[in-house]
Amino acid sequence: MTAGSVTGARRTRPPWLPLENVIDAVPAGRWWDTIAIDGDLGALTAEKYRAAGRPGPILCDPQGPAPRVYFFVPLGTADRWTEGDSIGLGKCCYVVLNGNLDADPQGVHWITPPRRQHPEPLVRPRLLRTALAEARVSL
């Protein structure tokens, strides 16, 4: 890797992302909210959302009682989220994030890593609802 590519990689990291090689709890409701979906439904929803070429950070935590997928959505989405089989996480909630954008999938890892752009492309709630509905039908 050249020095230029390292510098470019650092520029693409959003300010809320933990440092490389660090896993840390980051507050929701400050930069983004998240929608959490457990188990196979979460994984399939992520697959359907990504297959449509939609941007936005998606994280997987496979280490809980059931694997959980987090979709990073615009602020305020958690307060209005009413979809069953999912949980909106906003203010007063924390999400454990991995600072490595290419971490081992056995631990907390990014399915779709965040990118530093202005405005940052987050998961679009309306399109997430569509992907969740499609995933429900497929299971």
Plain-language structure description:
- With 139 residues, the protein is an alpha+beta fold.
- The protein contains four helices and seven strands; from the N terminus they run αββαββαβββα.
- The longest helix is centred in the last third of the chain and has 14 residues, at 125-138.
- It is globular, with a radius of gyration of 15 Å.
- It has helices spanning 3-11, 39-51, 77-80, 125-138, and strands spanning 23-27, 33-38, 58-61, 68-73, 87-89, 94-98, 109-112.
- β3 and β4 (68-73) form a beta hairpin.
Describe what is shown at a glance.
The protein has 4 helices and 7 strands. The chain has 139 residues and is α+β, with helices and mostly antiparallel strands.
For the biggest sheet, the summary is:
5 strands, antiparallel
DSSP strand count: 7
What is the CA-atom radius of gyration, in angstroms?
Answer: 15 Å
Which structural class do the helices and strands define?
alpha+beta
Contiguous low-pLDDT stretches (5 residues minimum) are: 1-10
Helix % is: 25-40%
* Major beta sheet, strand line-up: 5-2-4-3-7
Secondary-structure map:
Elements lengths: L2 H9 L11 E5 L5 E6 H13 L6 E4 L6 E6 L3 H4 L6 E3 L4 E5 L10 E4 L12 H14 L1
Antiparallel strand pairs: 1-6, 2-4, 2-5, 3-4, 3-7
Features:
139 residues, alpha+beta, 29% helix, disordered N terminus, 24% strand
